[in-house]
Amino acid sequence: MKVYAPNLHLFAFELYKATNLDSTPLSPDQIQLWQAADEIIHATLHQDLHLSQRIDITKEPDNPRVDLLKDSEVKDDNYSIPLVGTIPLNNQQNILITGLAHPLKLHDSYGLWLNLRRPEDEDDGQQTEDVETAVLSQFNRDNCFTLKKSDRFLGQTLLITAWLTGAKDEKHLQQIAEECLQAVFPDESQRPPLNRQGELLGSPIFEYGLFSQISNYQHVLIWLFRDTKADDMFNQCYQELLDLFFFRTKIIKSYQDSRQIYDRIAAASQDIEKLIDRLPKHNQTHHAKTDNLNELKNKLKELPQLALTYTRLLRNLEDYHNTITINDYNYSEKLQQISGIIQNDDLLFLKTFAQENSPFFQKQIQADLGYFRHGSTLLDQAIASIRGIVEIEQTERDRSLEKTIQIIGVGLGAGAIVSGVVTEHIDKPFTPLSFNTPPHPLISSLLWSILATLFFGGLAWLWTKRN
């Protein structure tokens, strides 16, 4: 089917600073967004954009929103780079394509708005002809509009707009949207599924990408203009829409990251429970060997580190919850600003994200925190339990050693006393041993000493055991 003046808008965002990122600043040619813009323009218009050479990322470092184009590149207060080229319509004809590249800084991130479009008018002022939806396939060659994921990449929104060609199109709105989607994403595996459809400022709009597939989420909007109302709104509020998509992207990225942290906390929680189940009870360690006691002492050293790691994971989950809360507020505030600019409150399609999706993300993370916080309590209990077992076992071992020393001391002392008494009466010289003669008094002394040691040692053992 045919449409008039189709547009492809890319809104993409990349962190340039964050607590979990390397603090070393990137040079302009290392920033993914600028590289992606160069690749897209080279693939579609066969031109060299060299975006990184045309921007100044050091401009106004304290300003939360900065247009990064160098002053020498700015023409008529336009902070976007104009794009002009042609693409093949068929084997015999090329058609005019225009667009823009707008690099900027938003708070802690870089942003890129890149647009390629079939203009409404030719160079001579004549209105351009309607084109088949298939022409959009020339915009996204080799899927160049889908940026690669990285540690710094936050995400993107792809907005496709086109004018309906007449009243007859009203019966085929979803078919037109599907044809546009298939043209932009010829590979079905790269095509996001339909999420919902509705109207925005009187024109039909389709949203693709499911939050149930959050790890591979891709956001695509197809907005089919019935009249000038929607087009005028876009032209009036494109900067605010860019901000809106930025806050939305940060919310989704935080929720995506929270699911990864969830998996790590779940695995750590299972390890904690298994460890606690393996801990011996006090009655099982009453006769524990030295090796077992040493093993418990080693666990007592390992567990605090595990507790620290677990606490950090919980803190990360809380940080993602806070990030979603803050950007949800920013998203709603930006919607209010857009509503004030266009003097129209018909923004329900955009409000749904703030009213339904974002609150769900927050509730899910809050539920995760409530469930996993008991893991910290279990760890504290495990540490206290092991410490108690070790202290009890060590005390019992010390007491046993003390009793042994007491018994030996009493026995030896008694034996020494008896031996001393007996040896005072030794005055005979040694004679050869014989069954007919009594033993020498020294031998008797040793014998009595041994017997006294055993007797009084036994009494001491009975006394200590009784006490």
Structure report:
With 467 residues, this protein is an alpha+beta fold. The chain folds into 3 domains: 2-226, no CATH class; 253-395; 398-466, no CATH class. It has 6 helices and 10 strands. The chain has helices spanning 32-44, 173-184, 228-278, 290-342, 348-423, 441-466, and strands at residues 2-15, 65-67, 81-88, 94-106, 109-117, 131-132, 153-163, 194-200, 203-208, 219-225. Strands 1, 2, 3, 4, 5, 6, 7, 8, 9 and 10 form a 10-stranded mixed sheet that branches. Strand 8 and strand 9 (203-208) form a beta hairpin. Helix 3 runs parallel beside helix 5 and helix 5 runs antiparallel to helix 6 (441-466). The longest helix has 76 residues, at 348-423. The radius of gyration is 41 Å and the shape is elongated.
Which SSEs are present, and which pair or pack?
Layout: E1 2-15, H1 32-44, E2 65-67, E3 81-88, E4 94-106, E5 109-117, E6 131-132, E7 153-163, H2 173-184, E8 194-200, E9 203-208, E10 219-225, H3 228-278, H4 290-342, H5 348-423, H6 441-466
Helix pairs in contact: 3-4, 3-5, 4-5, 5-6
Radius of gyration, Cα only, in angstroms? Answer: 41 Å
Largest sheet: 10 strands, mixed
Oligomer: single chain
SS strand fraction:
15-25%
- SSE ordering: EHEEEEEEHEEEHHHH
Q: Count up the helices.
A: 6
Coarse shape: elongated
Chain-averaged pLDDT: 84
Question: Which regions have little confidence, pLDDT < 50, spanning 5+ residues?
Answer: none
The helicity comes to: 40-55%
Span of the ends, CA to CA: 100 Å
Instruction: Give me the count of strands.
Output: 10
Write down the domain tally. Answer: 3
Structural class: alpha+beta
